[in-house]
Amino acid sequence: MPAPLSIVVPAYNEAIRLGQSLPVILDYLTRTNPTSELIVVDDGSDDDTVEVAKRAFAGATNINARVIAYQPNRGKGYAVRCGLLACQSPIALFSDADLSTPITEAPKLIGSIEQGECDLTFGSRALDRRLIGVHQPWRREQGGRIFNLIVRLGTGLPFWDTQCGFKAFRMSACRPIIEAATIDRFGFDVELLYVAHLAGLRLKEIPVRWDHKVGMLDTSGLYARDSLRMLSEVKRIRQQVDKGIYSEAISAARTMSLVEQKQLHISVPPDSLR
User: Fold this and answer.
1) pLDDT digits over 47-78, tens only?
2) pTM for this one?
3) What angle do CA 187, 215, 92 make, to 5 degrees?
4) Is the separation of the CB atoms in 49 and 75 below 8 Å?
5) Residues near 126 by beta carbon (within 8 Å), at least 6 away in sequence
6) Distance (Å, rounded) from C-alpha 196 to C-alpha 204?
7) Which pLDDT score is estimated for 218?
8) What is each CA distance from 194 to 36, 154, 198, 220, in whole angstroms?
9) How far apart are CA 39 and CA 49, in angstroms?
10) Distance CA 32, CA 196 (A)
11) Distance (Å, rounded) from C-alpha 267 to C-alpha 136?
């Protein structure tokens, strides 16, 4: 039997998409991991997101499916943190509501954690672009590449896609970092990955399938504004690292990861014990 799994789906005005994606996720979990948990976090929606999720969950039998809702809208980062911290399984995965990365790609991320090889894994559209079926609009795709280059230069992270909405966590090691996170909107991915990297957690970027779904950023005309906000958030993350805001979380996460590696009889580099 696979390890119990929690899946978190952050949602803001996603009634239409959830009506299509939640049955797909529930069917997948019923077939592959019937002891799992599915949490939809409604981030202050003003449509029927909550009602749609509850209707989808009404037919769930073995799956522990529930909705967390709050007002007002706080941002995707806040919603993801809220859902992850409510998870009861040792491994948690968050997925965007549109399933641009199909839920069937989950084993790629979860397997490395189950086998004790990684603490945090995340999907990437950059490592193998042959897996992209439907691309994002050209302006948004190029903007994403530039943003990730800036992230690499600004943080030293050795990854090419920090923003893909498909990430998995070993909760025992990652929980301190999730609890300490402060970025509520689009820069939250960078914050989690950067602080986990500073803690010496074992991170892995994994190529996944991707089919872009048209969303709010494509139609609102506010992509440039949101990109500037993301850059501002990266600057804020660096400042908070320098101020020691994450120091306790880094220490706790590093300790948990090393303890688990020892329990699994994984060789731990001597320098990491300092």
Assistant:
1) 999 999 999 999 787 899 999 999 999 999 99
2) 0.90
3) 50
4) no
5) 145, 148, 160, 161
6) 11
7) 47
8) 28, 10, 6, 29
9) 13
10) 29
11) 41
Distances (CA, A) of 33 to 18, 75, 94, 202: 20, 30, 16, 25
Contact assessment for residue 150 and residue 231, using Cβ atoms and an 8 Å cutoff: yes
CA angle 205, 112, 127 (to 5 degrees): 20
Contact residues for 75 (Cβ-Cβ < 8 A; gap 6+): 43, 184, 185, 186, 188
Structure tokens at 38: 């599915």
Q: Which two tokens stand for residue 200?
A: 């010496």
214 compared with 115, residue with greater pLDDT: 115
Question: What is the structure's pLDDT at 219?
Answer: 47
Q: Are 10 and 83 in contact (CB under 8 A)?
A: yes
Tell me which residue of 68, 73, 99 sits closest to 84, measured CA to CA: 68
Tell me the per-residue pLDDT of 201-257, one tens digit each, with 9 for 90 and over: 999 999 999 998 876 544 445 556 666 788 889 999 999 999 999 999 999 999 999
Q: Which whole-number Å values give the CA distances from 131 to 35, 93, 101, 209, 210, in the listed order? A: 30, 20, 10, 5, 6
Q: How far apart, in Å, are the Cα atoms of 25 and each of 102, 158, 164, 226?
A: 9, 31, 18, 29
What is the number of other CB atoms lying within 10 angstroms of the CB of residue 118?
Answer: 23
State both tokens at 220: 């609102």
